[in-house]
Amino acid sequence: MAAANVAYEQLLQVQQEVLLEKHEQVLQERQRYYNFFHFAPAGAFVTDTRGVIQNVNQALEELLNMTSEHLVSKPFVTFLPLEKRSEFWLRLADLQSQELAQIWDTTLKLRSVNVLPVSICAKRCLPPYADELWWWLSDRRDRIAAETAMQLAQARLEQEVDERTAALTAMNERLKAEIRARKKAEHALQLQAKQEQMLHTIAHRIRSSLDLQQVLQATVTEVRDLLKVDRVLILQFQPNGTKRVVTEARHKSYQALLSQAYHEPCFDGQMMNYYRQGNLRAFRDIQAADTGLHPCLVETLLKMDVRALLLVPILQNEQLWGLLIAHHCCAPRPWQDHEQTLLSRLATQVGIAIQQSALYAETQRLSRFDSLTQIANRRWFDAQLTILWKQHQRDQTPLALALADVDYFKAYNDSYGHPAGDRCLRTLAELLNRSIQRPNDLVARYGGEEFALILPNTDLAGARHIADTILEDLQRLRLPHRESPLKIITMSFGVISLIPSIDQSVETFIQRVDDALYEAKARGRNQVVVWPGVGEQRFTQES
To answer: Which fold has domain 378-542?
Structure first.
């Protein structure tokens, strides 16, 4: 009996020691998060679900110029102006109904300053602290000052542009006065010189500018000024058969046609072939009996107040891209040969500008996308991740990254051949692309058979869910792979999500998720491993 009592007492002593050790661990962990909270550089505080402040950190006291005694136990809404409180209650309700963080800009009403502009980030805590809300406040005064300075600089720049424009306009008026003073015999030569100058200017714009809209707008503006017509526009033929006005210059007395679309059945195949061969059409008066215009087109033109019409085709790769059109509205007008020649030459320049813009757009697309999979390439991934890292570091919001690797892909290529391997990579890229829903998410080919997913404002649980969903969708596809143990294509994922801090780097961020991917491979592939939570001892030492 005595021996049993001794054993029982020894057991009790061991249990007490274990409890004391766990209690000490809890105290240390609590102290660790207490230090993190109170020494964080951003203003932070904790409220209950009603928004009553329960705890604040030193940064918040300094930001609001108040001690914790003045802040704790007070509803945070009391520091907001009356007109901002309704928004606060709506945000508070959203915080209690979802786990996503709420981020918005507002102002505080304080004793020390009339109005303090701030940015707020708030989030409901996870169980067992679901009755607490965490808040972060940052001062927006520096940002507002920078925006104000930028607006002033913009205003000064606009003023300078207006002054230079006025000077150029005045100079242009003086040149016109000199031209009108010359003899009639010199008029044709002067007009031809001006046309050549305009063609040279537009050609120079095309060579020096990749902004197609700017080139088109300058073209119609200068043509209207030169020909003294009421309206000049460029009409583009759409693949669905409609025609849309992409740019115009007009006299203010006449209606605007910009962005309007038309579907005229009178543009039949014969008429399209006529323009496709580079032929133009000039009409002194569209109401004349001998024009040959289809009645539906005449009706449409009369609604636009058009009396005289000049249409010049714009060709692109021997296809009819659209028309360069001049409208004279106030009266009939004969179109001179030199005017028709001018518009034909301008249409050629516009065609060059369109081709140059298309080539530039394609070059930009190729610089961003992987040629095989048609998703973002490694260079675009690196650039976007660097930008998002800095943005989330500034906003203190979570950024998630997932790396995926196709399991046994070398064996797949050896068994099925590289063309089949390329088709497999394209299929996987389409699968990954379908898995993202938000416009800021990015899927990229990281290299070889590796893919990467950048998931802004996504916590670890959300990123893990996306990776798990991709594996489930891939499992349902059952793409054959006879060299794999499962006989189908599988992938391994490494996933990480964190709020970037000043002392962290994007390189470390990538290295950690790469370690998680390596761990997934080491554990047998076809699975998702998150960081932290893998290789605990190794990661603990590194962190």
So the answer is: Alpha-Beta Plaits (3.30.70)
